[in-house]
Automatic annotation (TrEMBL):
MF term (GO), any: ligase activity
Keyword Ligase: yes
Keyword Coiled coil among UniProt keywords: no
UniProt-listed Gene3D superfamilies: 3.30.300.30, N-terminal domain of ligase-like (3.40.50.12780)
Protein name per its UniProtKB record: Phenylacetate--CoA ligase family protein
Length: 456
């Protein structure tokens, strides 16, 4: 099934007041929100009070966002873990000394997965926080044509993890989530979709692709026969790759939207133009960028690339202030060519800790994957970057496993290899050794598919 092309509906800000403001007016308004939030966290958090005192700068000294961006990073994942160890020892709760509300006011907490260390309770909210955040999810669902009374297949690893906070926003919109933990397996996910007939679904791009291959075998029908009208994906590069977007949309027969939690979502366009940042009253995202290596501020202009420093307004439990997220994005400031949205847009390039340094050049795995995917169907698009030693510095040549296509004649691999290497050299600044793999041999994960194969 091929999705019929249509004119993209314009994305709007969640708070309609911003639709009538210039970027300069929005920036000034964010400055006022920032001043208010800095005073709040200083009064209510031992961690933030200590940080301001250490640098000798206080909330009332900060008059503009530009001044704020000159401050050092306050927190990253390891500092957050230490703050949580300290709060467990001194206060008997796990939420960190950066907690600004009483622990008794917490309505929801969701942790990170803990794959790179102890899990952190980063996503911790009061009832007021949840009510505030729910608006963004409801706004996205409404844009995607998911309305009160509909059902939505929600297939992530649930339990204590961060994605489960999205369920509050789904329910607040009057939509019934059919939540199936991915650990239940492909057959159970597809069975629930068959039984409940949801009009939309949320999952990772990896799982969406995985179900395309598995559905005929497990339920005797294609994913296009599930009758979805919208699919929302999160957590990976995914539909930022044109071939992946087209594959998923054609298979499911519906539009696929990329989203970043409450921060924004992609538009209803045939081409991918990035996540539209619809929440200027939630955070500074993506206005505060730094160089991933030096952590120095970067000027925001069209096409700039940098690491996101997170600062949240209006949240009361555990707002992040000058938090080094590790997420590297490219920011676009010009009007969206697909839908006409006038605010900022971002494309996620990867994680700063995934960055490889090869002969002095910074290389992101997502860039390699994107270039390789351009050769579909001669390749499947699945890759693994083989690491013989810990990143980021790599002794060349970089080794990349690539699956050739299901119908590709292996006799022509030398010619294909030359084309792939030339494209990677010119577009991703890397000249790798290609290790060809049979199609389907690099298994997709149901949560996030890894890009690295670590041999060290």
């Amino acid at each position: 099934m091929t999705l019929t092309k249509s004119i993209a509906k314009q994305v709007t800000y969640t708070d309609a007041n911003f639709n009538h403001m210039t970027e300069e007016e929005i920036y000034e308004y964010q400055g006022r929100l920032l001043q208010k939030q800095l005073r709040y966290v200083y009064r209510n958090s031992e961690f933030y009070r200590r940080k301001f005192n250490e640098i000798g700068v206080y909330p009332e000294d900060i008059k503009t966002i530009d001044q704020f961006r000159q401050l050092p990073v306050f927190m990253n994942k390891e500092i957050e873990r230490e703050a949580q160890r300290e709060s467990r020892a001194h206060f008997g709760h796990p939420f960190g000394t950066n907690l600004c509300s009483s622990p008794d006011e917490i309505e929801f907490t969701g942790t990170t997965s803990g794959t790179s260390g102890d899990p952190t309770f980063t996503y911790t909210f009061t009832r007021g926080d949840l009510d505030f955040l729910n608006r963004y999810i409801a706004h996205m669902l409404d844009y995607g044509g998911v309305y009160p009374g509909d059902r939505l297949l929600f297939s992530h690893a649930l339990g204590i993890y961060a994605t489960s906070s999205i369920l509050w926003g789904i329910r607040s919109h009057g939509v019934l989530p059919i939540d199936v933990d991915v650990r239940a397996g492909s057959k159970m996910i597809l069975k629930y979709a068959e039984m409940t007939k949801p009009s939309a679904a949320m999952m990772t791009p990896s799982l969406a692709e995985h179900l395309i291959d598995k559905a005929p075998e497990l339920i005797g029908k294609s994913v296009g026969e599930l009758g979805l009208s919208a699919l929302f994906t999160v957590g990976e590069l995914g539909i930022g790759i044109p071939e992946v977007k087209q594959k998923i949309e054609n298979a499911y027969g519906c539009r696929v939207y990329d989203y970043l939690g409450e921060l924004g979502f992609s538009c209803d366009s045939d081409e991918y133009h990035g996540v539209h940042c619809v929440a200027p009253d939630l955070s500074l995202f993506p206005t505060d960028l730094v160089d991933p290596e030096t952590k120095l501020p970067i000027e925001i202009k069209d096409g700039v690339i940098g690491e996101v420093i997170g600062t949240e307004f209006n949240l009361k439990a555990l707002p992040r202030i000058r938090y080094a997220t590790g997420d590297v994005v490219q920011v676009f400031t010009l009007e969206c060519p697909g839908c006409g949205f006038k605010g900022k847009r971002v494309k996620v390039l990867g994680r700063s800790d995934d960055m490889l340094i090869i002969k002095g050049a910074n290389v992101y795995p997502s860039a390699i994957k994107k270039v390789v995917a351009n050769f579909f169907p001669e390749v499947t698009g699945e890759i693994r970057i083989v690491l013989d030693n810990p990143p980021p510095r790599i002794i060349p040549p970089l080794k990349v496993k690539v699956e050739y296509g299901y119908s590709f004649d292996k006799r022509y691999l030398p010619e294909l290899e030359e084309k792939v290497i030339n494209a990677l050299h010119s577009e991703a600044r890397v000249t790798p050794d290609i290790i060809w793999c049979e199609p389907g041999s690099l298994e997709k994960a149901m949560t996030k598919t890894p890009l690295f194969e670590k041999r060290y």
